[in-house]
Amino acid sequence: MIKAILIFNNHGKPRLIRFYQYFSEDMQQQIIRETFHLVSKRDDNVCNFLEGSDYKLIYRHYATLYFVFCVDSSESELGILDLIQVFVETLDKCFENVCELDLIFHMDKVHYILQEVVMGGMVLETNMNEIVAQVEVQNRMEKSEGGLSAAPARAVSAVKNMNLPEIPRNINIGDINIKVPSLSPF
Amino acid sequence: MPAVSKGDGMRGLAVFISDIRNCKSKEAEVKRINKELANIRSKFKGDKALDGYSKKKYVCKLLFIFLLGHDIDFGHMEAVNLLSSNKYTEKQIGYLFISVLVNSNSDLIRLINNAIKNDLASRNPTFMNLALHCIANVGSREMAEAFASEIPRILVAGDTMDSVKQSAALCLLRLNRTSPDLVPMGEWTARVVHLLNDQHLGVVTAATSLITTLAQKSPDDFKTSVSLAVARLSRIVTSASIDLQDYTYYFVAAPWLSVKLLRLLQCYPPPEDTSLRSRLTECLETILNKAQEPPKSKKVQHSNAKNAVLFEAITLIIHHDSEPNLLVRACNQLGQFLQHRETNLRYLALESMCTLASSEFSHEAVKTHIETVINALKTERDVSVRQRAVDLLYAMCDRSNSKQIVAEMLSYLETADYSIREEIVLKVAILAEKYAVDYTWYVDTILNLIRIAGDYVSEEVWYRVIQIVINRDDVQGYAAKTVFEALQAPACHENLVKVGGYILGEFGNLIAGDPRSSPLVQFNLLHSKFHLCSVPTRALLLSAYIKFINLFPEVKGTIQDVLRSDSQLRNADVELQQRAVEYLRLSCIASTDILATVLEEMPPFPERESSILAKLKKKKGSSKLPDMDDSRKNVNGSSEHAEDAEVASKPPQFLLEELISTDRPHPSSSATMLPTRTMVPSHTFTDNLSVNSAPSSGASLLVDVFSDFSSAAPTEGSDEHFPRFVCKNNGVIYENQLLQIGLKSEYRQNLGRMYVFYGNKTSTKFLSFSTSVSTLQLNVQEKPVDPLIEAGAQVQQILNIECVSDFSDVPVLNIQFRYGGTLQNITVKLPVMLNKFFQPTEMTSQDFFQRWKQLGAPQQEVQKIFKAKNQMDTDVTKAKLLGFGVALLDGVDPNPTNFVGAGIIHTKTTQVGCLLRLEPNTQAQMYRLTLRTSKESVSQRLCELLPPTNAVPPATAAPLAELFTATLIWSWDAISLHRHMTSSKRGAIPALKHSGGRTVVGA
Known about the structure:
The complex is a heterodimer of chains A (about 190) and B (about 1000). With about 190 residues, chain A is an alpha+beta fold.
């Protein structure tokens, strides 16, 4: 079973956290910190598994983001690595060249996509076409309900870019893009 | 077109996020968040009813704030309200908030349940999925109560959409984990299993996960899933990749489903149905074959997916442990991966090989990779991988390579990561003990451990070395010499001082003859370390000093002066002060005799499970120990319960540990040297005698400690212990919660005496305790036994046994007593077998062959072939045969690996001579046993007793016989004849070959 899924950036800022086993809020934050501490000091060419006492961390590092799955002994390590890849490729399809900013501003959407892949700690679907199809269904429903809320949509993207003058300075945009299909993950 | 329309968001949310990102400092961020929280709170509390959109926006902001690590203590109600919205997006965010932020014991669950109920009934698949997700993610008991009966119905209903079926299967799985009692499967079982045939592979994947979990709990109910799973797997494995287009992942057909199906099959033994079994074997072979094909893509995803299936197939092969061919292929495949450039594969290969090493079919094959593994230990850059290499070396270690492996681990220890040092120390200590043929090597190894990694040498390790030195008198002198030399180093670890103090205190006299290590030199050396040590070590040294006074009267004055000094007599530490005062006084007033009695050498320690092994198991949990293959059984991980997660996640191993440790003398008490004998190990049933009296069987003694370990835990039923008594006379024959029964027995000719010890393990007394022995063929005379056994006490009973004629029945001991008002009845088979009345007989090879020939009638000879249960170890086998009762004759059999023995069975009426021959075939891991006696019934009976197991594999005997006849061209009678003739110089005989390839050349 998957106990938790954590996504954080190179500085340890959480971008998505999802626990399938109950932990108090403090514990959750502590787990994130410790996981980041463990994962971030590892080179990129070492193995993608880290073993704890009764769990395993299986992770991948894409550009600015770490995707970490915490699993128990019932999961196949390579299988989970593939699952991370499926999840990231799906994000990439849904967001078109997904980048860290997409995860920040569309946290809810990322959650919905993840829900199509993992449910209650178990793998729900691994077929990318199926996952994308489900997301598209959701999207159509959202659009059909749009009405009033659809109007400010364009304004949002304007605001988003307008309010973020520091982005190009701090981060190399080319680096942010997770062009998954062409990226060797190691 | 992107599936997510990026623009369709909430403006307020985007602004808020941007604000946060613009904050220059942590303080500014907190301030901005608090402002927003206040704003949201006032909006929620305000009079004006919020519309759905605003609620959605605020709830989303709360989620973001939560992600940043701030506690959210309001908004739950608003989220619950969103659940009943008609709008999908509002419902969706409501469910998201609840599954992220609501824990299972929230008081809102009833409200949430209401919303879920409506959505499940809505027949709108999207809404149903949202509801099912919520149940699976929260998984509380209240939810299980409300929906446990509903979800199976949704799962198997004919008109349910595929996506809903998938969710329902996983939802049910989750509820089964959190509240198994609420999810009765009975009526649904067959239909759930049938889901393995579903058209939609997503449904099959989810169903496989569900069935795997259920099958672990009640394997019998889901037996039918095996054939379906094999069929499904076979279709996937043999399909061209285009058949399963959607589920083909980088040219690999349905890797996830394959992995899941292979996991499911690991819940069961190999299928008994032969066609099914061959179909499965075919699948596994195909998977192994595919690994050798050139990759269809250079992408790492392709190789990952392919290898995920491959590793799972190998795990299944190891789990079945029945097809030597597959096991060896698996081992070769893993061997290739050991040198793969991908770190992940090297890691996984090391991990899998670790379990492979414990299979008797592949242990040898694994051993061939030793150099690669040692190299990995030296060169891998990744500590995770090095750790695996250590585990594998530990698993593949046996007598043949133990020295090399221990040496490599010791040298790695010097540079090892701090995080794994303690574990390596434990492993080295265990291996050194387990495979010590030569105990000087063992002592050297442990002292090296202390030198290299003294800080990581736990108490258990140095206690153990002392226990072993005390129990084995052949190593005591060497140990004393070695610690004396080691102590001369200018800086030595405190643990070494402890070991040194203890050993010199006990055995310093053994080296005192050498002027370089005269008593005074020894004392001065120890005392030079005294001031650098901690209080417990000083206390130990003081005890060593008083022992010195007994051993070496010539240093008495010097030591008394030291004890008398203010720093001892007035030491601030009460323990040290007391010891100094008492020891000084003791040395002054006691006569030499009293001193010698009080300070006598320590008695041997009882042989129990090595405390180090227990420690390692405790440290590592269960999964890493190769001889405990829990990891295989636990296919689906530890079950997880919302209420008592801690108890449930505790591996069963731990409970066992605790049981063991309670009946083990506390190590600290066994290591301090109180000058009185109050701590002489109280009654032990284990064989102490053999420690001192039988050095020839001594080598196997410590091995026995390990093999006995599994029975150290209290187990019901006597039959498990029984077989071990074929080759030994003392030990625990029976143990349950209340009572432990130990035996000591001795036999002379046709008479035997058995001491039976009844130990009351409870804190209540046993009343009306009585026993009776029923036997058909033996004369047994029972001495009366005390009818009352006090709590924690032990009583002894003597049985006198006479063997009238050869017999096959086993006497049965019936025990009756009252415990807390209820009458307890226990029956135990007493291990009195025919071989107990053996008298070992030495004879020359000439005599032997003469008799062998005399006993050539077909009914006098019995033969059997059986499989080696454990490692085929010469010393162990020797010890067993000696325990069986025959004398071992060296140099009789031309093949030195064979065992030959002789003895006479004494009964009142007759004496029956018996010759025995045991031929090991290490390649096939088999033994052939041949027995010739003058009496047919005796031959039969003795043959039944060997090997001492409960279950002898009967069916396989016939084909196995060919194994031997094929390799053994020579006949024994020919050899004996040949010997006979050469000895009487009757001419030459042509060369004869035998299995070992050695040639016996005629003179």
